[in-house]
Amino acid sequence: MKRFLHTTGKRLKTLEYWLTARLVIGILTLLRRLPPEKALDLAEKVARTFGPKVGRHRLAVDNLRQAYPEKGDAEIEAIALDMWGNMARLAVEYVFLDKLFDFDPEADTPGRVEVEGVEIFKRLREEKGVPHIFFTGHLGNFEFLPIAAARFDLATTSLFRPPNNPYVADYILETRRSAMGGLVPSQAGAALQLARVLDDGGNIGVLVDQKFRKGVNTRFFGRECRTNPLLAKLARQYDCDIYPARCKRLPGGRYRLIVEDRITLPRDADGVIDIEASAQLLNDVVERWVREDPGQWMWFHKRWQI
Questions:
Q1: Eight-state DSSP code of residue 264
Q2: How far is CA 224 from the centre of its chain?
Q3: Residue 306: inside a domain, yes or no?
């Protein structure tokens, strides 16, 4: 009986995933028929209306209150609404990546996407065969970063966590791969795949602001959390430079990609990269970014769950 219930439960979950994926993909397909600006504005409007009605909104508001105890309820709700607008735009931007990303390193006229740190990209391009690690957080459209690197002939293999829904995950993976090159799902064997890229003198990109239950103890916005030590371990193994990068949404449906100069990871008394201190440094960088644009980060994520 237990086996029957287990099997039935798995089949029902699979059916739920399939139906949800059909709905999501169907909506994105319909939006694809609209001009990008109209589709994005519509998605944001819907998200701002219905986002506050879902359970994750309460989690977002609670996280915001703990991160910003000095802010009133109205300001907290305004940030949460901005977050829903940002997340809706990000979801729809997947189907418009080819139309939205218009940055050209050789163009004199600015487009929808601008890059701050062009000189850094150009410098790294000249370091042939030297591995680099870029890190970012879930801010703005972070998917633009590896696309921008590719425009400077800096092919980057990105580590990503696929959605729980396998059908949605396949759709997003195919969309991302066609636009941004190498992708490594965050699962068993991911560290080895990234290590091979660095072994070959390649570049990798890592998101560092997600919950990782087996991670090292750190703090983020003053609260305890666990952080994935992978980036610090790879940096220690390959002694490669680390570059912070992020995407910032601008008014009028524009974007600014900001690549900062390399950071120096903390080392212990023996001169070896300190894993916990490095993970904390990454958190501090991301927190600085989030404080600048709190409505562009995903506050409904269970980042502080230990």
A1: P
A2: 21
A3: no
Print the domain residue range for 245. 105-296
Q: Give yes or no for a contact between 215 and 278, defined as CB atoms under 8 angstroms apart.
A: no
Tell me the per-residue pLDDT of 118-146, one tens digit each, with 9 for 90 and over. Answer: 999 999 999 988 999 999 999 999 989 99
Tally of domains in the chain: 2
Tokens (6 digits) for 65: 């209150």
**26 within some domain:** yes
| Residue 302 forms part of a structural domain | no
The secondary structure of residue 219, as a DSSP letter, is: E
In a domain, 256, yes or no: yes
Bridge-partner residues for 250, per DSSP? 254
Short-list 230, 139, 138, CA closest to 187: 230
Is there a single domain that holds both residue 112 and residue 184? yes
Task: Give how far Cα 255 sits from Cα of 104, 112, 139, 285, Å.
Answer: 14, 6, 11, 20
pLDDT 10s digits, 38-52: 999 999 999 999 999
pTM of the model: 0.89
